[in-house]
Amino acid sequence: MAERILRVKFNPGVPLDKRFGVVTEFLRKEIEDGLRDEYVRRKAVEIVNRAGVAGHDELGEIRAITKWVQNNAVYRKDPIHVEYYHSARRLIKDIESGRSAADCDDFVILGASLLGAIGYETGALIVDSNGDGTFNHVMLVVRTHAATREFGRKWIPCELIFPTFELGESVKVTKVIPLIADPNTKRLPVMMQKVAGLAGFGGSGRAFDKVPIVRMVRGLRRR
């Protein structure tokens, strides 16, 4: 069940705010489901161990996992008017079998799930990168437990679809909406729910958790 691909098709007449609310809710829930998956945790541990990261090296773990996602997941766009959502487990298995095809939403689901599975607060940074008022891109955000010299205790944006980007670097951003995953959720995983369009979505109506944006992006380095 956790390896299914969720396909959400929008009719051209669906208002942008309705579509955006559904997209963000699915994204948050997929991250929450992924970080609770033992299969995902085993992969995260494998990645940091193979990278030779020492225990308690939090930035080392974050860098190892973000680099693994950047270098192994393959970016492919979704069809027009359709959003595909892959579970973190499915994304990992597709990478391992040579069938990786993911867009920025999926990259964030994968990276946030892997990091969340080894104890980090994670989420998505939904941004307007064109300055036209439309939110069109998603980046991973994560933060360490202990303050670091480089980032303190600030949220760290991670651009996953461009392998040359380092922690804290991003594409140009004009507007931001933070979306933070809840690791303590007890709801049924998305891939085990029945979903039938907007009416059957069953979401809470909350598109995102309200977190002070300035705290999220302070220190962000743009290219």
Number of strands: 8
The quaternary organization reads as: single chain
Distance between the termini: 39 Å
Number of domains: 1
Compact overview of the structure:
This protein is α+β, with helices and mostly antiparallel strands and 223 residues long.
Overview of the molecule:
The chain is globular. Strands 5-4-3-7 form a 4-stranded antiparallel beta sheet. Helices cover 34% and strands 17% of the residues. It starts with a strand and ends with a strand. The model is unreliable at 194-219 (pLDDT under 50). The protein contains 6 helices and 8 strands. A hairpin with an 8-residue loop joins strand 3 (121-128) and strand 4 (137-143).
Please specify the SSE layout and strand pairing.
Layout: E1 5-9, H1 16-35, H2 38-50, H3 58-72, E2 82-86, H4 88-96, H5 104-117, E3 121-128, E4 137-143, E5 156-158, E6 169-170, E7 175-180, H6 213-217, E8 221-222
Parallel strand pairs: 6-8
Antiparallel strand pairs: 1-2, 3-4, 3-7, 4-5
Summary tags:
single chain, 223 residues, alpha+beta, C8orf32 fold, globular
